[in-house]
Amino acid sequence: MKTIKIGGVNVPIMGMGTWYLGEGNAAQSEQEAAALKYGLNHGLTVIDTAEMYGNGAAESLIGSFLGDYDRANIYLISKFYPSHADKRQMLTALKNSLKRLQTDYLDLYLLHWRGSTPLAETLEGLQDLQKEGLIKQYGVSNFDVDDMDQLTLEPGGDQIAANEVLYNLQSRSIEYDLLPQQKQANITTIGYSPFGSGSGKSIKLPPELRTLAKEKNISTHQLMLAWVLRHGDVLTIPRSGEASHMAENIAAADVTFSPDELALFDQAFPAPRHHIPLEMI
């Protein structure tokens, strides 16, 4: 599988999202844990979560098996609420996340979306956490071009490692300006919801793309995931609660497209030709 760098650290181009995981009954949680462990056992070393996901349920699910693995081989990301973006509450939020995850540090800690706390204060808090060894790197999520411009001008803003944003066939706005800007600044773009919201069926593929999936003997979800990975510029984090689906996600990383095939995607879902405000789900 291709790799991508986050702040100089090489990780696989595909990780594992955990939104909505850990919120069901014991049997469902066991199945979801098995899916995540399948991913870890097959090279997906990045796990993305947040204190928001099930009010900590996703973090607790991860913590239930994290100790079975060599922590040094896992790249663990979590996110904190904007309401916890001041220095004091950020430290409390992080300690609570670490307790649920049953680990003593995060590889990457992200502000989930921009709130009312001054960016300078949030950055100062993140740098303090980094100095204490509680996080290795820090970044943001759901920040648009103007937000990133302001962020990088603040003290510590030049050390932002990543920005996690919505990116899929139907939501391509980052291609026009945000993605090129972040590549130039060596800020990793993490793309969430590669299949769209909910079950993934919200993205309706036209007949020509469904035919392309059949010709390649892959599912439509694999087709959409492979498209997100096509250029190697975005770390995608599909969520899966079943090991069989996790295996399909992994296989999608090997799918390639010819220029003519990529043109089919562009015809159905045109690339942006001007700035479009960043979407968020």
Task: Provide an overview of this structure.
The protein is an alpha/beta fold and 281 residues long. The chain has one domain (9-202, 230-242): TIM Barrel (Alpha-Beta Barrel). The protein contains ten helices and ten strands. It has helices spanning 26-41, 57-66, 87-101, 119-131, 145-153, 178-184, 207-215, 220-228, 243-252, 259-268, and strands at residues 3-6, 9-12, 16-17, 46-48, 75-80, 106-111, 135-141, 162-166, 188-192, 234-236. The strands form two sheets. Strands 3-4-5-6-7-8-9-10 form an eight-stranded parallel beta sheet. Strands 1-2 form a two-stranded antiparallel ribbon. α1 (26-41) links the parallel β3 and β4 (46-48). α1 packs across α2 (57-66), α1 (26-41) runs parallel beside α9 and α2 packs across α3 (87-101). The model has no long low-confidence stretch (mean pLDDT 96).
Q: Based on Cα principal axes, name the global outline.
A: globular
What portion of residues belong to β-strands? 15-25%
CATH superfamily: NADP-dependent oxidoreductase domain
Give the class-level CATH name: Alpha Beta
Walk across the major sheet and give the strand order. 3-4-5-6-7-8-9-10
Structural category is alpha/beta
Q: Name the poorly predicted regions.
A: none
- The overall number of domains is 1
Mean pLDDT: 96
Rounded to the nearest angstrom, the distance between the terminal CA atoms is 28 Å
Report the major sheet.
8 strands, parallel
* Relative helix content: 25-40%
* Element pattern in H and E: EEEHEHEHEHEHEHEHHEHH
* Number of E-type strands: 10
